[in-house]
Amino acid sequence: MTNNGEEEPERARRARLLRLFETLDTNQEGQLGLEGLRNGLKRINHPLQNADKMLQDLMDICDTSGDGFIQFDEFVAFMEATEQHLRGLFNAIDRDKNGQLDRSELAHALESNGIIVEPNKLQAFFDRLDKNNDGQITFEEWRDFLVFIPQFGEDGVDPGMRAIYSYYLATVNVNPEGDVTLNDDLFESIGFFLAGGAAGVVSRTATAPFDRLKVYLIAQTDVGQAKEAAKAAAVKGEVGQLAKTATRPMRDAIRALWNAGGIRSFFAGNGLNVVKVLPESAIKFGSFEAAKRLFARLEGSDDPKHISGGSRFLAGGVGGVVSQLAVYPIDTLKL
User: Fold this and answer.
1) How far apart are CA 215 and CA 283, in angstroms?
2) pTM (2 decimals)?
3) What's the rounded Cα separation, in Å, for the pair 274 and 268?
4) Which function does this protein serve (predicted)?
5) Which of 222, 234, 238, 304 is buried most deeply by CB count within 10 Å?
6) Could you tell me which of 176, 159, 163 has the C-alpha nearest to residue 85?
């Protein structure tokens, strides 16, 4: 079909597919092996060129004879079946039936399939499809980007928007060397992790003197005498003596620590606090994310960002418990 929805003549379609096949056939062998297909996709700068797994899947689907090569007839059969599915999906997304897709129609199609995409990522997806940057996606632009998606040629199965968006994410996150690059979500998560670690270092250092006093008081054995003296003062109604007696363990602890080494004594053991912050944050973060994914599956959702408040609360609890269990042995070293 053409851009306005009219049926593309058989001769014109076959001629177009022949031109594409000849363009992909860089060695002019009349057939495409795996390397030949990869080189051809590089020639047209198609995003699938570096996605080895998808390339192999595409090769397996197209090569119906199983000889390791894609012949022209096999290529035509795959392309025609794929384009038919793409046209059907394009028409379903095109709500105003003007033969073009705008940003709101693409967003609606994603949301209808339970895919919630942030505005900036939706724009990036739209821009990748909108090749001429005119604010509209024509069927030709839609077809040219998605025509090699392997799932469309697999027993007539229409994978829908979820597979299409996954295909987009898989292709844009593969570099020319075939390595998967880190996407914005991962960079954002790493940023949160590092920021949390830095905040933990600062907060633990700021509260280190209080933590040191707590540990010192826990280790003392004469605190019971101070308690008895405080009780006696309370019975007699001696308020001044009560306050003095009640605060004596704290004053004695501060004096003892200061005499032991000055200000540095109040930060003894803080190195352990700082050392455990990053692994504790990493374990807490990883456990929290794993728990969210588990609860998302239990709720029948594919997106851990869209779980109930109760599940999020429980996931946070799991993260806290696991991280504390993992780093607890370090705390015992401070005694």
Assistant:
1) 25
2) 0.51
3) 12
4) Mitochondrial transporter that mediates uptake of thiamine pyrophosphate (ThPP) into mitochondria.
5) 304
6) 159
Q: Write the DSSP string, 293-334.
A: HHHHHHTT-S-TTS--HHHHHHHHHHHHHHHHHHHHHHHHTT
Q: What is the CB-side half-sphere exposure of residue 57 using CA atoms within 13 A?
A: 14
**100: which strand partners?**
138
Q: Which two tokens stand for residue 314?
A: 């429980």
For domain 10-172, the CATH superfamily is EF-hand (1.10.238.10)
Token pair belonging to 255: 């004096």
Beta carbons within 10 angstroms of residue 123's beta carbon: 15
Task: Say how far apart CA 282 and CA 273 lie, in whole Å.
Answer: 15
Angle between helices 119-129 and 160-172 (to 10 degrees): 90
Q: Is 130 left (phi over 0), alpha (psi -120 to 50) or beta?
A: beta
- Bridge partners (DSSP) of residue 31 are 71
What CA–CA distance (Å, rounded) separates 15 from 171? 28
C-alpha 137/C-alpha 39 separation (Å) is 27
Backbone angles phi, psi at 138, to 5 degrees: -80, 165
Please check the confidence at residue 50 and state whether its pLDDT lies above 70: yes
β-bridge mates for residue 180, sequence order? 174
Q: How far apart are the first and last CA of the chain?
A: 77
* pLDDT exceeds 90 at position 100: yes
Say if CB 193 and CB 323 are below 8 A apart.
Answer: no
What residue ranges do the domains of the chain occupy?
10-172, 188-332
- Per residue in 182-220, pLDDT tens? 445 555 556 666 766 777 788 878 888 888 888 777 776
